[in-house]
Automatic annotation (TrEMBL):
UniProtKB keywords: Signal
Pfam families for this protein: TctC
SUPFAM superfamilies tied to this protein: Periplasmic binding protein-like II
Gene3D superfamilies reported for this sequence: Bordetella uptake gene, domain 1 (3.40.190.150), Periplasmic binding protein-like II (3.40.190.10)
Stretch forming the signal peptide: 1-34
Protein's UniProt name: Tripartite tricarboxylate transporter substrate binding protein
Superkingdom to which the source organism belongs: Bacteria
Family from the record: Belongs to the UPF0065 (bug) family.
Length: 332
């Protein structure tokens, strides 16, 4: 202290100021967020559906690009069961640190609407990270029916009851079929199935009249003549089947419905990590658009902020809940 007392004027003031700033600088340094992802740490993307399926295929293409954007290992792990609930629970139970994520389809957000005892609330127990893509559905009918245009199908379905295959309750195929009945004023009897393939087989065999499901899933049989394509649900025709018109072209000008895919993190994941993941996801999606990898699956890429994704989910859930209620659906 004797040394300090000998210093006067500007020199003393500068030295005291520097000493006073040292603890603050140290505290600021220690409270700064750690780099994400940390070197050597792996990101796990959980897919709640079977390997090789549509959601899994999209997830693996996305994960490869996400790896490049984050500069770390990204693996895909399938946790199958309970219409996606098993995978959802695995992510919900994970540490909210951004290293365990859920890649799923639109069905994820409807757990409260379609399950009698939902294990979580998708809108409050998960953080929306990014919506990465959407894909049209295709309406196909039995080739044994005489109709080839949507107008003919709607007219016939208004006069007598048609049967409609439902591959999964609460899935886009289910909701889009309800929307078709509502806007097309069709009289439909819904026949539940465990998956698209058995439903397609029965439509092809004439046991069920129609199916509205993922275009990529039904397109091979449509091209083979096993089922008859009528229309797709997006606002524009698909390059995978340019000869098939849209619903809007075919007499339902307000009809628009797509399946979509997104990425979620557990609740309480730090906001800065969620934003980092959103930025990396959007960059990954941009690369998938440039390469055409998503287009090969019939998926149109989507790039949104986390807030836009959150608003989209709220609107989608509201529309779906109204359709289910209007159809008298009871959670199972």
């Amino acid at each position: 202290m004797k040394t300090l007392t000998r210093l006067k004027g500007p020199v003393l003031g500068a030295l005291l100021g520097a000493l006073a700033a040292l603890p603050i600088a140290s505290m600021a340094s220690s409270s700064a967020p750690a780099a994400f992802p940390e070197p050597g740490k792996m990101v796990k993307v959980i897919v709640p559906f079977v390997a090789g399926g549509g959601v899994d295929s999209a997830a693996r293409l996305f994960a490869e690009q996400l790896r490049k954007q984050l500069g770390t290992t990204v693996i895909v792990e399938n946790r199958v069961g309970g219409s996606g609930v098993v995978g959802g629970r695995a992510v919900l139970a994970a540490a909210p640190d951004g290293y365990t994520l859920l890649f799923s389809a639109a069905t994820h957000v409807l757990a409260k609407q379609v399950l009698a005892h939902p294990p979580y609330d998708p809108q409050t127990d998960f953080v929306p990270v990014a919506r990465v893509g959407e894909a049209p559905l295709m309406l196909v009918i039995s080739p044994q029916l005489p109709h080839s245009k949507l107008g003919e199908v709607l007219a016939a379905g208004a006069k007598s009851t048609w049967t409609a295959a439902i591959p999964a309750v609460g899935a886009p195929s289910h909701l889009a079929t309800l929307l078709l009945a509502q806007q097309g004023r069709m009289r439909l009897e819904y026949v539940p199935y465990k998956g698209t393939q058995p439903a397609l087989v029965d439509v092809g065999g004439g046991h069920v009249d129609l199916l509205l499901d993922s275009m990529v899933s039904v397109l091979p049989l449509a091209k083979a003549g096993k089922v008859r394509p009528i229309a797709i649900t997006s606002g524009k025709r698909s390059p995978l089947a340019p000869e098939v018109p849209t619903m809007q072209e075919s007499g339902l000008p307000r009809f628009a419905y797509t399946s979509w895919y997104g990425l979620w993190a557990p609740k309480d994941t730090p906001a800065d990590r969620v934003q980092r993941l959103n930025q990396a996801s959007n960059a990954a999606v941009a690369e998938l658009a440039r390469s055409g990898a998503f287009a090969s699956l019939g998926i149109d890429t989507v790039s949104e902020s986390t807030e836009q994704f959150k608003r989209f989910i709220a609107a989608d859930v509201a529309q779906s809940a109204a359709l289910l209620k209007g159809a008298g659906f009871k959670p199972e």
